[in-house]
Amino acid sequence: DGGITQSPKYLFRKEGQNVTLSCEQNLNHDAMYWYRQDPGQGLRLIYYSQIVNDFQKGDIAEGYSVSREKKESFPLTVTSAQKNPTAFYLCASSLGLAEETQYFGPGTRLLVL
Amino acid sequence: AQSVTQPDIHITVSEGASLELRCNYSYGATPYLFWYVQSPGQGLQLLLKYFSGDTLVQGIKGFEAEFKRSQSSFNLRKPSVHWSDAAEYFCAVGRKNAGNMLTFGGGTRLMVKP
Predict the structure, then answer these.
(1) A99 pLDDT more than 90
(2) How far apart (Å, rounded) are the C-alpha atoms in residues A93 and A32?
(3) Nearest to B85 by CA among B39, B42, B46
(4) How crowded is residue A74: how many other Cβ atoms within 10 Å of its Cβ?
(5) What is the SS3 assignment for B61?
(6) B29 pLDDT exceeds 90?
(7) Under DSSP, is residue A9 helix (H, G, I), strand (E, B) or coil?
(8) Is residue B100 pLDDT above 70, yes or no?
């Protein structure tokens, strides 16, 4: 089945710790995205990548980092600089740029211990 | 800057009743518009989208939406709601000149009474 997978489903972070969220897609999509979802605030864009080895900051990139070494993978690292990391994180992908529908993964819920 | 407003945070309707979820956007040009649905703890599923052409668009699960440029609105409708429609609904606008980045509204949580 083609789709987007995210792992883990739940992730716990200790103070001062960096954690990495996985996002993999087998849809052969060029573009990939990371969103953060907080209650009542909808989704906010963290980072996006249009092609391999290229990525751009979104609206709330501070405290996060990404890499795009492979077309299929777009991992997100939540660094210790992100002071309020508790949220639901959603990865998405699309064929390319404008007019292309974004397809979403099932999400990872990050909780701080 | 573009923005999307969903004025209703929660809506409760009876099963079989009609539904309209409101979405207003602010954008400098003709936008790309989307409606997504999210079940609890899950990712988002696309219901329908508007890029150009006919302003009344049909989607999955019996949903439709109408783009009204004069009102900057893209309201979602369904003639008869089913209990399985209970979920959170998000309206989004695509930014044409900045890749394919989406700006989302805050969402509307739909509850369905039996």
Answers:
(1) no
(2) 4
(3) B39
(4) 29
(5) helix
(6) no
(7) coil
(8) no
CA–CA separation, B6 and A101 (whole Å):
21
Give residue B50's pLDDT band: very low, low, confident or very high (50, 70, 90): very high
Place of tokens 């945070």: B9
**pLDDT beyond 70 at B51:** yes
Q: State the smallest CA–CA distance between residue B17 and chain A in angstroms.
A: 25
Q: Residue B64 above 70 pLDDT? A: yes
From chain B, the residues in CB contact with A101 under 8 A are: 34, 46, 49
Mutation target vs B (from A104, A108, A109, A111; most B CBs, 10 A cutoff) = A104
In the prediction, which pLDDT does B83 show? 95
Query: Which of B6, B96, B104 is the closest to A43 by Cβ?
Result: B104
What span, in angstroms and rounded, lies between the C-alpha atoms of B10 and B7? Answer: 9
Question: Residue A16 region, left (φ>0) first, then alpha (ψ -120 to 50), else beta?
Answer: left
Lowest mean pLDDT among A50-59, A86-95, A99-108, B64-73: A99-108
Contacts of residue B45, defined as CB under 8 A and 6 or more positions apart, other chains included, come to A104, B36, B37, B38
Radius of gyration over every alpha carbon of chain A, rounded to an integer in angstroms: 13
Of A83, A79, A85, nearest to A66 by C-alpha is A79
- The pLDDT score that the predictor gives to residue A32 is 94
**CB-based contacts of A39: which residues, under 8 Å, 6+ apart?**
none
